[in-house]
Amino acid sequence: MLQMFLSLLLIPSAAITVWHLVLSRISRFTWRAYQITGAIGAPVHELSHLLACIAFRLPVQRVALYTPGRTDGCLGYVVFTANPRSIFNNAGMAVQGVAPLIGGATIVHYVLKGQGLVSVPSEISGDPGWIVDEAVRTLNAAILMAKSGGAGFSLLLGMLVIAMHSIPSWADVRVGLKGLLLLGLTAIFAATACEIAASYVSLGSSFQSLGLLITSWIRVTLEMGLSGAVRVVTLAMIGGDL
User: Fold this and answer.
1) Which ranges does the record mark as transmembrane (predicted)?
2) Cα 38 from chain centroid?
3) pLDDT computed for residue 54 by the predictor
């Protein structure tokens, strides 16, 4: 599970680094093309942030789904506030860091599922070999869609555009890391309190069952997140090379 968690952190981080390096070196024509594709991709990116705000009750101040004219290169934004003393808000901030990736991965999953191209691997480990295999499966699915005719090719183009704009920004990462840090400190405090309580009350088996259930949920979430992250990053790199 630790390997999956580290992979889920490292894959988006590596993708963000490479992606922003590419964007910093592109020509004016290519940047204009990126802005145009942002008419589809940027709203998906920002709506993912907005939905995360709604889900975790983060008060929204301002929203712009698509702003191609900004001089700083930002194609959209969602400005919100958070209470650092709220566990729910801290969880929301942690999710905000990868919200565009989650939104893009969800769309990619259902598009591939609609085309009958989703293959669920028997084991998700997060090791480099598995990551390469998943990337190759995604590449093969993209090739099949490109060869399937006009409808499949159009869906593929839409999927590539969304994937390119689903890579989190550095601002997203900073918010996510802040929420993750606060959430981690809260989890340590809660675990310590539970351990102290268990030493006074005979609740050992109950805490153990709850711990196993939470561990199972975390593992399933990591598996889904890692598969989605690899697919989105692979498609984003394909789209960036076109």
Assistant:
1) 149-167, 179-203
2) 18
3) 95
pLDDT at site 12 = 65
Written as one letter, the residue type at 137 is: R
231, two tokens: 């697919």
Single-letter residue type at 112: L
CA 20 to chain centre: 16
Which tokens sit at 36?
A: 């145009």
- Residues 180 and 151: their CA atoms lie apart, in Å, by 41
Kindly list the domain boundaries of the chain, sorted by start residue: 2-241
Q: How is residue 148 annotated by DSSP? A: S
Residue 122, number of CB atoms within 10 A of its CB: 5
**Percent of the chain residues topping a pLDDT of 70:** 67
**C-alpha span between 9 and 195 (Å, rounded):** 29
Rounded to two decimals, what is the model's pTM?
Answer: 0.79
What local confidence, expressed as pLDDT, does residue 47 receive? 96
Which residue is listed with tokens 């989605």?
A: 228
Closest CA to 12 of 112, 105, 136, 109: 105
H helix intervals, the chain: 2-25, 28-55, 87-96, 99-114, 128-147, 150-164, 170-200, 204-241
Residue 126 in tokens: 């997060």
Spell out, as residue ranges, where the chain has pLDDT lower than 50.
none
